[in-house]
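Encode chain A's predicted structure.
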Amino acid sequence: MGAIMLDLAIFISGRGSNMSAIIDACKNSGFPARVSVVISNKPDAKGLEIAAAEGIPTQVVDHKLYSSKPEFEEALHEVVSAYSVDLICLAGFMRILGVGFIQKWPDQIINIHPSLLPEYKGLHTHQRVIEDGKDKTGCTVHYVVPEVDAGQTLVQKVVSVLPDDTEETLGARVLEQEHEAYPEAIDLIAQKLSKRVAG
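Encoded structure for chain A:
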């Protein structure tokens, strides 16, 4: 039996380059996922135009229109629930999801972080890596849990830090690997679920 087909919701806040990598992967006939909806918390996110041009439904849940984080996340949950969704992929979504939302989607939310977790959680990872004189860094696709950047690792890619690297040059090379890692992680989840169903 082949892998099951996962229906994805992709959350973005900007251009959505990882979103684009996932969309491109879904065009491959053997890839076990399809994008049901792209959701942004920013109405002007460039990625919304890109997704719409691919014929993918898009939705905006603007966090600024809600008086509290729980209200925003309840609205977000309602929008996601209106679609067939097995897995939520955070792709440059610049809001930290609360416990209430995460518990509604247990083991169904993944994120990508531009470091080799558990090292360099949080922001400004490339600058911190360079300042610390590290010779390697990378990216990590992981499950989302209430503690930020602490969920189980799915896929990691290693990138060498070059002597003349800047935050921008290193970030660009890590981003290339992110575009490889995210589809790999989605494929891995589909394979695991297929084995569970078959077993």
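The mean pLDDT is 96.
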